[in-house]
Structure formats: structure tokens, C-alpha cells
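Open question from group meeting: does this chain pack into something compact, or does most of it stay loose? Before anyone orders reagents, we agreed to write out a predicted structure and look at it together. Recording both the input and the output here so the notebook holds the full record.
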Amino acid sequence: MKRCSLNATRPTTAYALAIMLLLSALVVGWSTSVAGAAEITDENVAEHVATAKTAAEHQALASFFRAKAAEEGERVKRHEKMLAHYKQGGGKPYLHMTEHCQDIISTARQLQKDYEMLAAAHEESAKVAAGQK
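C-alpha cells returned:
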């Protein structure tokens, strides 16, 4: 009966171990870089504003605020359509609904302007951080 030598499996085991360690290092490095580039949300935007220092961080904030401005633009369009329908319906039952839509349109337009202003400010900060100004 032949005995199996453990030495025959050592190179294969060492090779597999090396591959596993390399893959683990890659996964840890990837997850760290993803965590460092966390998505900006309504819940964490204040933290990002407080800690933004690099051009990339300011540009990410500018993109976030541009997207918020676009959302408000869509809100204006939706409520303008509803306002038109309520006005067509006419009469007293729709009076409070038309006022409601007009208020939302006004507020959304102001928010849109404010978000555009914030985006422009962070774009300017990105240029400064990049040494362009």
C-alpha cells in the first residue's frame, strides 16, 4: 500500500492560500474605497457639508444639489398640471386646491433656486480646492 505524502499537497495548498489572501486584500481595499465615497443623501448631507475639503467632495455636493434642484423643477411641473385641471373644474370646491397648488409651485420654485445656488457655491469651492482659483 502506498502512503500519501502530505508534501505533495503543500504547494497546491500554499498556492490556494496565497490566492485567498490576495482576494481578501482586494475585497477589503475595494470596500474601504466604496465606504470612503459614500453616497450623499438627505440624511447625511449635513455631515458631507461639514467635512467637505477636496474638489471631489465639493463636486459631489454640487451634483447632489443639482439633482435636488431638478426634483423641485419636476414638482413645479406636476403641480402646474394639477393647477390647470383644478382651474378647469372651476367653482368653489376647487378653490382650496388651486391655492394649495399655487403655494407648492411658489415654494418649489424658491427651493429650486436655492439648490442651484448651493450647487454653484460648491462648484466654486471645488475649483478653489483644486487650486484653479
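Observations to bring back to the group:
The chain is about 80% helix and 0% strand.
Residues 3 and 115 are 75 Å apart (CA to CA).
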